[in-house]
Amino acid sequence: MSDLFLTNARLIDPEAGTETFGAIKISEGKIAEILTQDIEKAIKNFPAGKVADCGGQYLAPGIVDIGVKIGEPGERHKESFRTAGAAAAAGGITTMITRPDTTPALDTPEALEFVARRANEAAPVHILPMAALTKGREGREMVEIGFLHDAGAVAFTDCDRVVESPKVFSRCLTYARSLGALVMAHPQDPGLSKGAAVTSGKFASLKGLPAVSPMAERMGLERDLALVEMTGARYHADCISTAGALPALQRAKDAGLDVTAGVSIHHLTLNEFDVGDYRSFFKVKPPLRSEDDRFATVAAVASGLIDVISSFHTPQDEESKRLPYEEAASGAVALETLLPAALRLVHAGAIDLPTLWRALSLNPARRLGLDAGRLAVGAPADLVLFDPNTPFVLDRFKLRSKSKNTPFDEQRMQGKVLKTFVGGIEVFGA
Asked: What integer is the mean pLDDT of 373-382?
């Protein structure tokens, strides 16, 4: 690892909540010094070939993205560690937290070790795997949480499959608590949600699509929080997308429960009407909500009630998306669109850059116990240099992901990643 001096940058510090003009000195893969004064003097004492001028653009901690789907093993034709790693680096993501909804599910130490080995071989960014909470993600029998925790699982989740049995889920929470392990869940009532393609309302009725009430999310979250209160476990709700769920989340936090929540970038920037004439690239899980729900979740991110913004990168091939809307697979790719989509919130005046980076980087790193997401001496030099104002029209066929199922295709966006550094090494440069 070589030394590097990044100068003439606007530094986004999510811990301090500040945006300052300065420079960063990197040594042995870590941030060695942060300078806001006497920068020119420091540059003179540094080898010329190791100084990089950031051109007055913005330098921030690399994004820590929780809940990335990668198709290895089982669906490598949709996404591989190599393609996902390249897309993440191009999107300013320096750490991906991957989901266990593979084929087969990541529910054994051997499967987890395979994924970790493949990831380290193929990807230029950090990849940390989550493990399934129940065997086969079937909601019947708890996995060997202790062995999987020792093998490197950073959290446990059955992803979008809700553990329907309160008894099974409470046992999982109790055992996870004994190890200090984090359980991540998808708060939805499975009975109400089954077969739904959109959010209930006038739009769903006009389109004749099977719908689910937003109440299903509140009901699922209320159940989970009651079990968390009973067991004292560490819990993260992966995607809160409705206004109705927010009071329950606030009460849980006020009561001192070890609870955090996330939201997907699609639910912060799109609404139910974007489905339009059955556009299946807009089919995600949970379904896109009303504009009132979108405003409420944006406000919750700004206030800190919702802790984390994630891409929920879910690659699907053309065959699974080019179907009637209710039959099409759910999910969208988002590794390269996460940052420009999130910057829509900044350009709209709904949130500032340090607050945005708190949700994109600092909070997810803290929740997982990672020494990342910070601009601080001694922190890993995982950084992203970006221009928040560069406009462009997205062409999905230029995305580095194998699958191209993005709802932002042909949309005008703003914000471009210029460079991404992992451990002080440049892994992407525009």
From this structure: 97
Residue 48, C-beta contacts closer than 8 angstroms, at least 6 positions apart: none
Question: Is 96 among the domain residues?
Answer: yes
Is 426 among the domain residues?
no
Number of structural domains (the chain) is 1
Report in angstroms the alpha-carbon separations of 213 from 251, 289, 294: 22, 10, 15
**CATH number, domain with residue 286:** 3.20.20.140
Count of positions (residues) in the chain: 430
Domain assignment present for residue 410? The answer is no
pLDDT digits (tens, 9 = 90+) for 35-62: 999 888 888 888 878 999 999 999 999 9
Residue 336's contacts (CB-CB under 8 Å, 6 or more residues apart) are 87, 90, 91, 399, 400, 401
Whether 50 contacts 97, CB under 8 Å: no
Q: Are strands 383-393 and 234-237 parallel, antiparallel or unpaired?
A: unpaired
For β-strands 412-422 and 425-429, DSSP reports them as antiparallel
DSSP assignment string, 217-276: HHHHHHHHHHHHHHH--EEEES----GGGHHHHHHHHHTT--EEEEEEHHHHH--GGGGT
Measuring CA to CA, which residue among 173, 326, 148, 331 is closest to residue 239? 331
Q: Give the pLDDT confidence score for residue 46 in this predicted structure.
A: 85
pTM of the model: 0.97
Residue 122's pLDDT is 94
What residues form DSSP beta bridges with 184? 236
**Residues spanned by the domain of 69:** 62-367
Residue 348, classed as helix, strand or coil, is: coil
Domain assignment of residue 280, yes or no = yes
Residue 1, pLDDT above cutoff 80: no
